[in-house]
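Everyone, carefully examine this protein record:
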Amino acid sequence: MPGQRERTGGGSERLEPVVAAAVARAGYELEQVHVQQAGRTQLVKVVVDGDDGIGLDEVADVSRLVSEALDSHDEFLAGAYTLEVTSPGLDRPLTRPRHWRRARLRKVSVRTPEDKFLARVGDADEEGVELLVDGQLRRMGYAEIDHAVIEVEFKEPSAAEIAKLAHEEGSG
């Protein structure tokens, strides 16, 4: 689960180390490389992320570095290609500790082998995450979670929820 990178597309496995190194030089992490034929050219889709997310200016910087890296390794892509660099969408499953850290205080839908529930995300570390489930704090290891995604909500978390997740005195 954590630390695993999604790999798809025909030439993706060969390109991945080259692309990952370029993305790392920019200070971000490679989430996915996908290569597909698009007419006479190939579409190379690169999904990148970081602990603090990634903005449009940073996507442009990463795109330039990845393009330079691909151009210097043209043996991996025969002919013309189109490069698309993007960040993961909101509906991306939470699969790595940094995904959970970025989701702090967000509402998430969690599925385990035994249950499915909504929770609010608290502190996350390399082994697991603290979740507020029905007003109770619950520590879960990532291995216990089959699937989790952020739920779109239109209101801020309540002061009581924030206090509980912050472990403040008198919050219970």
User: Anything to note?
Assistant: The helical segments are 12-25, 56-72, 97-102, 159-165. The first helix runs from residue 12 to 25. Strands lie at 6-9, 29-38, 41-49, 81-86, 107-111, 116-124, 128-133, 136-141, 147-150.
